[in-house]
Each structure stands twice: as structure tokens, then as C-alpha cells.
């Protein structure tokens, strides 16, 4: 978009000043661009911004740690403290363990591409700040792959998944916050009223604004404490087995990583084109 070309130009200039190979310059430009967008968002919101680590590092714990530290350093260079940043990581076993190490250093994390209860339990045990389970993508999978075609919110598999995660966290006093994400309709949002946080698209926000019905709180600490959930512990082998037992989660996690990685490659190609035009004096 033309309105943001100055951020891309700034990122490319930063990368050129840092030097290195073309690959290194492209990586530096992309990192700077992500942080530049984060800085602009933080000018408009009082809270935090999530900055996502490249999905191609989803199975590389050390790579994710290095990238997260780079983001924090770039934010600090812009005068933004780490308390206003969430590092967004894929909820693979490696991503969750990277999140655990970052949290121990005071760097807060948002675990994305979360579809299974096993992922949610491992994230809580890692003491990450926030998880963002994808309600809509879970619902989409069940409608496509099974005979569960009901559109009733109470039978929505995405709603049921987030409800279980919320209840588990609250029953056992985990500090990790649940942020429902990937909403497809207003019914899903209302069915999860009371969840810690939502990330909702403008179209559904507009529907909520215009809806005059009474909203009933569906999730609460009191209800969670009364649930029959039992506490479990997952080491790596248990995590991989439990996650693997959920075909939806396996498929959606893999699909999400591939799609996010494809977007990263598109952005790299855009940066390369910009770098070439700068080099040629255009």
C-alpha cells in the first residue's frame, strides 16, 4: 500500500547500512519492517503489539530465540520497552519451549496456531503470557471433514475448544491469558463472552456494536472451578502423542505454518525488488 511505502524504504535503508550478504540484508530489512509497523501501531493503542517470528523457524527453538531477541533490541532502539511487545510464536513443541525461555527473561509471548488441548496445556506449563486459539479455523475443519455441520454456537467445535482451555487455565490458576481469535460470526463471540481477551475483525465488531440484545456471560472463573477437568502434565513425548491424536490440530498447525511461510517468502521477494531498485537509483 502506498501509505506504508516509507516504512519499507526505511527498512531497506536500515538493512543496507547494516551490510552483509543479500540474504542477511533481506532478513534485517524484514525484521526492521515488522518492528516499524509495531511502532506505528503502538502510537495508536495504549497496550501491547504482537510481532510474529517467521513461521519457517517453527521447529528451530534457537532460531526463534535469536529472532525474538532481535525484535526486542529493535524496539528498544525505538524507545519501546519489552513490556509493550508480545513475541508471537507458533505453538509447536519447539515454539512453546522458546516461549518458556523468553518468559523467564521477561520477554512476553503470544502463542499462535493453537488448535489442540495438548498445545494449550504445554503453553500453560511454560508460563507464557498469552495463547490465541483459532476458533474459526477449528470450526471450518470440522464442517469440511466431518458430519458436524451445526452452526449453533453451543455445538461449535472452536467454541468448545476455547471453553475447555479457559476452564482448565482458571480451574488450576494458570497465569496464561486466553485470547479467542479467528472468529467467523457474532454467535461465536457471544458464546465465549467472559473470555479474557478477543481479537475480532471490524465486521464482527460492527455487528456487536449494533446488537441490542442482552449479553450473558458464558465463561467465568466460578464455572471453571466447578468443572470436572483434571490436571495433567505433558513432557515432550506426551505432548507429541496427545497432539498427534487430534487430526484437526495436526492438519491445521501444518497448514498454518505453510501459509505463514509462503507469506514470508512473498515479503522477502518484495524487499528484494525494493533493494534492487534502490541499488539502481530508482
Describe the structure concisely for a colleague.
The chain has helices at residues 5-18, 22-42, 61-77, 93-104, 117-125, 135-145, 157-171, 186-191, 202-210, 221-225, 236-244, 247-279, and strands at residues 49-52, 85-90, 108-114, 130-133, 177-180, 197-198. It has 282 residues and is of the alpha/beta class. The longest helix is centred in the C-terminal third of the chain and has 33 residues, at 247-279.
Keywords:
single chain, 282 residues, alpha/beta, six-stranded parallel beta sheet, 12 helices, 57% helix, globular
Number of contiguous helices: 12
Please provide the ordered H/E string of secondary-structure elements.
HHEHEHEHEHHEHEHHHH
Percent helix: 55-70%
List how many beta strands DSSP finds.
6
Identify low-pLDDT runs: none
- Label the overall shape: globular
